[in-house]
Design brief:
single chain; 108 residues; 3-stranded mixed sheet; 4 helices
């Protein structure tokens, strides 16, 4: 597969997504109009973000037409904040987790 083609780690996920017919999009600013236009044009049932560390505009999340899911490396109950995988290794944890959560309008 992809490993034989010497794809850099930063290029693997987009390559896998494209191979599966999914168009990955990377936005630098989630507060601007670009994200709203993208969602409005695509009208997706689900948007999956990876390691989102920004608050999404409330109106975008509250519309209800699209479910927003974020996958965050690390066990966010044990290692909140930046570099959760580093802290899991530092603390000698036997396992490293991926936390998946539904993004809602309220902040907890």
């Amino acid at each position: 597969g992809l490993a034989r083609h010497r794809i850099l780690p930063s290029q693997r996920l987009p390559a896998v997504l494209r191979a599966g017919g999914v168009r990955p999009v990377r936005l630098e600013d989630v507060k601007g109009d670009a994200l709203g236009r993208l969602v409005e044009d695509a009208r997706p049932d689900v948007v999956v973000t990876l390691g989102l560390n920004r608050l999404l505009p409330g109106a975008l999340v509250a519309s209800g037409a699209t479910r927003w899911i974020n996958a965050h490396l690390g066990d966010i109950e044990r290692h909140r904040g930046a570099a959760p995988v580093f802290w899991a290794l530092h603390d000698g944890d036997a396992d490293v987790a991926v936390s998946v959560h539904l993004i809602v309008e309220a902040v907890d």
